[in-house]
Amino acid sequence: MQNIEKVIAKDLLSIKAVFFRPEEPFTWASGIKSPVYCDNRLTLTAPAVRNDVENALAETIKKNYPDAEVLMGTSTAGIAHAAITAHILDMPMGYVRSGAKDHGRQNQIEGRLEKGQKVVVVEDLISTGGSVIEVVNVLREAGAEVLGIVSIFTYGMKKGIERLAAAEVKNISLTNFDVIAETAAEEGYIKEADIARLIAFRNNPSDESWIGK
User: Fold this and answer.
1) Which residues fall within 8 angstroms of residue 72, CB to CB, at 6 or more apart?
2) 202-213 pLDDT, tens per residue?
């Protein structure tokens, strides 16, 4: 698949999995105003887009993590993508819960994972990186060798980049905020002038000076 970043950007925009609204910002749970709404779960109900995403994840894993033995999805958004990608690659998969179950075997990691196995974590979206790093830490504590992360989309936020670096874990995303913003302008979803506003938000989400520009 040529220029995968652009292909996936167009795909996500076409089904509004990534939806820009700089003139009427969304409000996050934290209270921060955001010009972008992201819901990569929508890829699962769009077969053509889903096919592009899963095949791209599979190719990314083969190219960048050739020694991978197990895929582990993040709960809950990464589970389906890990399962489909593992099917394409004929690999085992599992997933990591946000917390251990309070019944049965009280597992936090679901699926068989042996100590020393080489794992790739499958995530749908990375913003500040906190949740996916928790998954990486759980897997490491269980004795896995985490080769890295594959994700569909990343904001490229400073906090997320710094957290991943501090955790010494690599992430490779199919596409990113900058490419999607540029593609959105090219495809007529937003104005060319909006790109700078979007990048200003990405660089400092707590600074709302981009609103109304």
Assistant:
1) 82, 93, 94, 95, 96, 109, 111, 113, 119, 120, 121, 122, 135, 139, 144
2) 999 888 888 876
